[in-house]
Specification:
The complex is a heterodimer of chains A (312) and B (246). By secondary structure, chain A is mainly beta. Chain A is built from three helices and 19 strands.
Chain lengths: 312, 246
């Protein structure tokens, strides 16, 4: 039986993070496997408490006002066994004018029947900056169901940037539900990049409410579906106040018997607000494909390169 | 016998012959130019030799080193050593230039790929990690495409309008690259209606309405540019009146 240290090392091996970074006292980190904390380190001004639950963890995460964390905080949520449920409850509070970047890896390397459920409440104080990059590394078996849900309150003049990436391994089922409420002069930038194969199912429902004047938001989805994979993207942007600006962008590449749906919804409730949207769904561009094939790449390799570019 | 022989090639779109019993021999190791007016069939010839979609249903044959390539897919032709640079190169959202060039190269080392970017006049540190997307001008994409052909070291490189979109200062770089290809043993086919490009060739073919109407030295074919017309029966007749494309 593997020790917790060995499991932590095994999980890290599958991320692109140098484990030596975790020895840096300026790098805060939190490593969870199933419902166990395998490692944790905070930096001044960052307060993290974790309560182990029967099927997951309850995390309180706060950053004091005016604290600027210099180096990205690393979070690793792993499910080492083939089966099980991992529920992550996150309560995040970023103080006024504080600044932090988080890099999260969700690693399920052997999953046959794993559920990963995240319920997050994120409150970003006025003038604060919070960026969250989440990369999933799944098993090739497709036995993962992922349900990331978050409600995000973005304070006045605050910035919220998030990137979700699921490119390595099979998706299984992903059902993303993010809702953001944006106060005046705030900025929201949310991007999801997911590549589905076999019978993977991808569902993305993101909502951005530009509540305050001069609030700005962008919702971007880049999806590839191959084989019999399916994707549904319902991204909604609403603007309630003057000079709010938003854009909803969805690009999906469909190959084989894949099916993609994109429904960008825009709602403007103020005559001085402005929202645009763009959705493009289709096969790989034939000129791109022929260009790469004329350099000697097989059709499959050319498609792979094009899709990797789109999702990068 | 040439390295590439186009034999009695006929290709029709909507009942109109775009290539009309066209015959050309491209000699190995030479720089050839294929010139002619708009609609003469120059780019169609390039697309047909490469085997692009929509250009595979033709009469006649194309022989590479004596063997027919008519049933080969694009990548099979490329692996034999035939490649094409488009008049308007493709954009690839998110694809780094290093990966695009590297995909064609046998030597995928960063040093070699950067050196090749420099050879076509692009600052490697500025372009190597950049995406090959709409933020690049057409001229920049032309140079990147040419770099991808240089690293491929093909046996035949077809360059469709290689000076199109290229600023005057960069044209010499393009011509230098053409000579580098030749020096490396590549047979170069320049598809052009530019006198400057024609002058880089060693031998030229003049085509009109899908047929070769003249061939020979660059000096001889240059007359086409000087007369602003072509030495065929269609002289001074509007092209639409004789069944061609404008």
């Amino acid at each position: 039986m593997k020790s917790q240290t060995d499991i932590a090392a095994e999980l890290y091996k599958r991320t692109d993070v140098d484990p030596h970074n975790l020895k840096d006292p300026d790098v805060a980190h939190l490593i969870i496997n199933e419902n166990k904390v395998l490692g944790m380190h905070a930096v001044p001004g960052l307060n993290v408490t974790v309560k182990e639950l029967e099927d997951g963890v309850d995390i309180k995460f706060s950053l004091d006002d005016d604290v600027k964390v210099k180096k990205p905080v690393h979070l690793c949520f792993g499910m080492y066994p083939e089966k099980g449920v991992q529920r992550i409850i996150m309560d995040v509070a970023i103080g006024k004018n504080a600044q932090i970047a988080l890099m999260a890896h969700c690693v399920f390397p052997f999953a046959v029947d794993v559920q990963h459920i995240m319920d997050a409440k994120i409150k970003i104080g006025d003038g604060a900056r919070y960026s969250y990059f989440e990369r999933h590394v799944h098993s090739p078996k497709g036995g993962v169901k992922v349900y990331p849900k978050a409600i995000v309150e973005v304070g006045r003049k605050a910035h919220f940037k998030t990137e979700f990436e699921l490119i390595k391994g099979r998706v299984g089922l992903i059902d993303i539900g993010y809702e953001t409420i944006c106060e005046a002069y705030s900025v929201v930038d949310m991007t999801a990049r997911v590549s589905g194969r076999a019978d993977d199912v991808i569902k993305i429902r993101e909502t951005c409410n530009l509540k305050g004047e001069y609030a700005r938001g962008v919702l971007t989805s880049k999806i590839a579906v191959r084989d019999n994979a399916r994707a549904e993207v319902y991204n909604k942007m609403t603007a309630d106040a003057a000079f709010a600006r938003g854009h909803v962008d969805c690009k999906e590449i469909v190959q084989d018997n894949g099916v993609a749906t994109a429904v960008p919804i825009v709602e403007v409730h103020h005559p001085k607000a402005h929202i645009t949207h763009e959705a493009a769904i289709g096969s790989v561009d034939s000129k791109q494909l022929e260009t790469l094939m004329s350099r000697g790449l097989s059709e499959d390799d050319a498609v792979e390169l094009i899709i990797n570019g789109l999702l990068s | 016998m040439g390295i590439l022989e186009v034999k009695d090639l006929k290709l029709t779109f909507n009942g109109k012959p775009i290539l009309n019993r066209l015959n050309i021999d491209f000699w190995e190791g030479h720089i050839h130019a294929v010139v002619g007016p708009n609609g003469a069939g120059k780019s169609t010839l390039a697309a047909t030799i490469m085997g692009l979609g929509g250009y595979r249903d033709f009469e006649g044959d194309i022989l590479f080193q004596g063997e027919s390539i008519r049933d080969l897919k694009i990548d099979d032709r490329a692996r034999k050593g035939i490649t094409l640079a488009w008049q308007e190169p493709a954009r690839f959202e998110g694809l780094p230039i290093r990966d695009f060039i590297g995909s064609a190269a046998q030597d995928k080392s960063a040093d070699y790929l950067k050196m090749t970017l420099a050879e076509v006049g692009l600052e490697p540190d500025e372009y190597f990690d950049r995406a090959l997307d709409k933020t690049l001008s057409g001229g920049e994409r032309k140079k990147i495409e040419l770099a991808s052909i240089l690293v491929m070291k093909p046996k035949i490189a077809i360059l469709d309008e290689p000076d199109s979109g290229i600023d005057i200062e960069s044209i010499q770089r393009i011509f230098d690259a053409v000579r580098m290809l030749k020096d490396g043993g590549t047979t170069v086919i320049l598809i052009t209606h530019s006198l400057a490009v024609l002058n880089e060739a060693e031998h030229a073919f003049l085509i009109c309405h899908g047929r070769v109407v003249d061939k020979g030295s660059v000096e001889k074919i240059r007359q086409y540019f000087e007369d602003k017309c072509i030495p065929c029966d269609h002289k001074n007749i509007p092209i639409q009146q004789i069944g061609g494309q404008a």
